[in-house]
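Q: What would this chain look like folded?
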Amino acid sequence: MAKLKLKDKLTAYRFYLILASLFIASLVVSNLIFQKFFSWDFFGIYKFEISVGILPYPVTFLITDIISEVYGKKKANQVVTAGIFASLFSLLIIYTANAVPATDWSPIGDALFTKVFGATAIAVIASMLAYLFAQYIDIQLFHFWKKLTKGKHLWLRNNFSTFLSQFVDTASVLILLCSFNKIEWDKFGVLLLSGFLFKVIVAICDTPFLYLAVYGIRKRFKLAEGEELILEE
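A: My prediction, written as structure tokens:
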């Protein structure tokens, strides 16, 4: 692990805070917009039917993989925990906003606001439970593969850890949403397949971005392959 001078340590912290901010923003937004669904014809091979909430969600796994690779398991787990608190805090704000009656001239009335955000509690709880399992699994598997390959083959640990964790995440959140009658059970199979395949495609496509980010950070702090930054003694 690389020990840093004070100036470099401050810069490394700034990079970490930017990554953590993007992670938390992606997670919170995905919980807020999940009720809209869309279809996507993938080159005539398969027609996806998925929630728009899935669009920012793969970003969280890319970011935790970047943090895991250059900052280590502890820092990745800290970001995951921060994401849970951010989701709970956003839920508190939404419930407070929903409890306040709208004025007669408000562009958004109580009924519409409740329709859009009323199911957010179940969504956030379901998402958090699924996310908690999936992210910790992702981080554990990432470091398992990193240790097994002795810091080599970044693409392997990125994709192999993400594939399993994304399946756990997709299946868990759908089971919870169907159990609370937010989604009909007859939609479970198609949404599970669509959600998982979409996340797999995104995971494969984001691999170059992972390499680019890791390469940039390694070059900036002169890290060897598989080496991690030490921010705290």
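The two ends are 11 Å apart (CA to CA).
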